[in-house]
Amino acid sequence: MDFSLSNEQRHWQETARKFADEEIRPISLQRDAIETARETWDWDIIKKGSKLGFRTMAVPKKWGGHGTDFVTQALVMTELAKADSAISKAFSQNWKWSHLISHACTEEQKERFLKPFVADDTFLLGKGITEPGAGSDSRLPPDDPKFGLKLKAERQGDEWILNGEKAYIANAPVGKLFFIDARTDATVPPKQGTTMFLVPRDTPGFRIGKVFNKSGWRFYQNGEMIFENARVPHANVVGEVGGAVRKAGGRGGDTTGGDLFGDLELCSSALGICADACETAMHHAKTAKQGGQTLFAQQIVQLKINKMFMLTEALRSFVMRVAWEHDQKIHSCNAGLAMNYSTYVVQEVTELYMDVRGGDGCRMDHHTDKLCRDAIIWSHLAGDAVQQMKVARRLAS
Amino acid sequence: MYNLHLSAEQLEIRDTVRDFVEREIKPVMLKADRLDVRDRSLPMDLLDQASQLGMRTLALSEDRGGVGADALTSCIVTEELAAGDADIAALLSETSRLGHVLFDQVMTDAQRDRFLPSFLENDRYHLAVADHEAGDDTRLGVNYSRPVAIVRDVKTMATKANDGSLVLNGMKDCVANAPVAQLFAVEVKIAGQPGTCFVLVPADAPGLAVRAHERPWTHGPCGELELKDCRVPADHLLDEKAGELLDHVNISSRGNPLFQALNLGIARAAYETAVAYAPIRVQGARPLAEHQAIAAKLAGVAIKLEVARASIWQAAWASDHAEAYADRSLSDLPLQAITQVFTGEMMLEAAKDAAEVFGAMGVMRDMPLQKYVHDARVCLHTGDGASDAKLRIAEAIFRYRRPSDAMPRAAE
User: Fold this and answer.
1) Which residues pair with B197 in a beta bridge?
2) Pairing of the two strands A177-183 and A125-128
3) DSSP A383
4) Is B158 left (phi over 0), alpha (psi -120 to 50) or beta?
5) Do B141 and A382 touch (CB under 8 A)?
6) Please, what sign has the CA dihedral across residues A354, A356, A357, A360?
7) Bridge partners for B201 per DSSP
8) B139 contacts chain A (CB < 8 A)
């Protein structure tokens, strides 16, 4: 057992902490307060972060990225999310899909897509899975061909013609390249009949619809994608036709791809929020007064603070273990379990934080309210129960 | 004797309000552009209609022109209104509650003659009590089970002018209903007198300025008052028992749990929305209602709602029947504080579980679920909070009696 970090890992962690403190935190609440969903975005912070490597850190060095390991990604994610988990997600969304490009795309595709991604500070990636009629169904695809994704891709010579809609897609309004899951065979269950395509933003027949107006994670943009006879070259098929689900990290498939990092991403992001809540709650408890004494003088406050730190540190251990296992190529369900656990922890810890903070008469502190709103998102990334059952079924298989 | 029947009149009132909520309130308040928790503008037309149905003057006695609803009936109405909209429910419930306290219990005949006719005539005549100032510390907290008197330092002063009228100076904060109230009961200190008293201040009194709080963490409109040489006639001074009656959570924590009924209404709205959606949304090749994971979750929400309602109704009935405490029919614990903690914690869980059924739509600002979760959070974290209520319950459990010569606590 060795919990020490390498110099390189520590360096990334410190750079991330500095960027989070100096650049992200100062704009966090201000961006959160913007009323119009489309306007919360700020390219400036993306460009600054990109220059420090936070956009491309998961791209292998061979392709011009930083080739960081999973432990480093978890550390950086935690530091960035501690300042604002919505801003950090705008960066880490790219790590997931750059993992996918590196592991699932051909050399020719990498040449076409990974190179421009690395070169351009405003090149962001996204992946379209969820549809208005397929939320949980994209996490636990049903065996009946009638259900699941509806977005259809039909082959026409060297092209595929895509028709349909995606909803709630992260980075859709700001991304330049998307992985799109589409049904290429409607007669078989979605697990077998789905193909993944690389779809650039400027693809004819493809456009972005509304930007969803979320109660939390305000900065980070989720949008609608509309495909009306969108023409995608066959050369943009990722892996083989009908292989989308497997490529995304299904058992026996690419287990270091997007899906697996998705779980690690979410639990380290939750850890960042928890760390922020713990630190701020402790500061508040030691400075705010009630009845002439600090709040911390009260046993009920000490118990709440204890629970916040206990859950947060347990989550940290779990997150780092999962990151380490990924780096060791140990395949397990732990990432999924850590993600499930983080949903519980991030909501419990932020609620305790609100409890410690209490209302100030008829007002609530903006930061406290924001952390609670951000934390609620975890049970809506499909649905908490669905995410738990998904992992249980993986454990049973 | 144990009787859970509602009277024919209570059932009729409930049906009337429920029908009004379905037909009038929901179609307006569930429109996408009204669901943003940051926009709390009031639907004045709906409030007028509600007033005409008697909901503004609900608790005022029949003799004086009200509906004469008791505590239980008032809770039933508040729950129904809150199932439609928490702000409407909060505004009407506060005016109704204060209407009863002010006109039935504390005003002199002369005061009543002056203000009651306008209160009855004007559908937009709302009431407010201004008993909070910035920096007030009303929590028991660190003084749990300690002989320290919990007294607030009221800074708003009233002095007597030469012509006998009262001149008020000071600031009040977090005044529920302030932006729409026509009449305020303002807590003041009178120089040279111990304790505090309440003074009636009409909204148009010279020297009174009312400002609405932007995005308050409350239900219903809320604001602050600035009193600058605000002058009212000497006979606007209220009887000394007004303080205890006007207080939302009265000293014994045995008052009417109206705010808890509001909390229940919010969670019920979330539940009903989820129950309506679960049979029609198909995922995993079946309607959500046919999945154990969702079914068990919604059953859990139903359990919380039923138990919360039972505890609210018991506390409401008890607040009108002090004799049931005296003859040992009821536990001697503060039932209002008990239901406050239970509903606060349970209703937030209920709203969150109901919201989860909607997947991503559960967090969207143009959908109602995020509003219900927010509204439930507001209930849990307004006032002194659940932790403080638990300490008050604990003092009752251990029969702690604060000595009458308790020292005032140190200033912060």
Assistant:
1) B188
2) parallel
3) T
4) beta
5) no
6) positive
7) B184
8) yes
Give chain B's length: 412
Burial class (CB in 10 A: 0-12, 13-18, 19+), A186: middle
Alpha-carbon distance of B340 to B385, in angstroms, equals 9
With CA atoms as reference, the chain A residue closest to B409 would be A291
Structure-block tokens of residue B123:
């559908």
Q: Tell me how far apart the alpha carbons of residues B15 and B202 are, in angstroms, rounded to a whole number.
A: 35
Global pTM reads 0.96
Burial B85-117 (b: 16+ CB within 10 A, else e): bbbbbbbbbbbbbbbbbbbbebbeeebbebbbe
- With b for 16 or more beta-carbon neighbours within 10 A and e for fewer, the B32-69 pattern comes to eebbbbeebeebeebbebbbebbbbbbbbbeebbbbbb
Average pLDDT over residues A307-318: 98
CB-CB: which of B352, B385, B412 is closest to A292?
B412
CA closest to A189 among chain B residues: B285
- Which three-class secondary structure state does DSSP give residue B370? helix
Q: What is the mean pLDDT of each run of 10 residues along chain B (412 residues)?
A: 92 98 95 80 94 98 98 98 97 97 96 98 98 89 89 90 95 96 96 90 98 91 97 94 76 84 98 97 94 97 98 95 92 93 97 95 94 96 89 94 74 46
**What is the rounded distance in angstroms from the CA atom of residue B239 to the CA atom of residue B105?**
9
Q: Position of tokens 């005032």?
A: B408
Give ipTM to 2 decimals.
0.95
Nearest CA in chain B to A383: B359
- For residue B23, what are its two tokens? 């037909």
Of A292, A297, A377, the CB nearest to B411: A292
**pLDDT digit string, tens, across residues A13-62:** 999 999 999 999 999 999 999 999 999 999 999 999 999 999 999 999 99
